[in-house]
Amino acid sequence: MTVVSDIKAKRVTTTGALSVGRARIRGVTITASAGACRFTLTSGSGGETLLDLDVTASTTLHVFLPQDGVISAADPYVSAATNVTGATVYYA
C-alpha cells in the first residue's frame, strides 16, 4: 500500500477559516455539548457546503470520508458550530 498524501489535523472550537489553504477533507471528529449540535464546513466563507452534520447532544461523532474525501477549492471554513465543544478536521 502506498501513501497518497500526508494527513494533517486542525482543531477548532468556533466558526471561521481553518487557515490551511486549499485542502482535501478526509474526516471530522465533533464533540457536542449538552444541546443539539450542528457543524457545517464550506469551501471558503459563503462557498459550497462540503459537510453539514447534526450531532446528538453530549456525544462525539467520528466521520471519515471514503477514497479521496471532499475537495475544498478555497480555505475550508466552519460556517456553523452550534453547541460544539470542539471539532477536529482531518485534511490533506
Short description:
Helices cover 0% and strands 59% of the residues. It has 92 residues and is an all-beta fold. The strands form two sheets. Strands 1, 3, 6, 7 and 9 form a five-stranded antiparallel sheet that branches. Strands 2-8-4-5 form a four-stranded antiparallel sheet, with no helix packed on it.
What is the CA–CA distance across the termini?
17 Å
Class of secondary structure makeup: mainly beta
Largest sheet: 5 strands, antiparallel
- Residue stretches low in confidence (pLDDT < 50, at least 5 long) are none
How much β-strand is present in the residues?
Answer: over 45%
In N-to-C order, the SSE pattern is EEEEEEEEE
Nearest-integer average pLDDT: 94
User: So how many helices?
Assistant: 0
* Structural shape: globular
Number of strands: 9
Radius of gyration: 13 Å
**Which percent range fits the helix content?**
under 10%
If you had to describe this structure to a student in words, what would you say it looks like?
The chain has strands at 8-12, 16-17, 23-32, 37-43, 49-55, 60-64, 70-72, 76-82, 84-91. The protein is mainly β and 92 residues long.
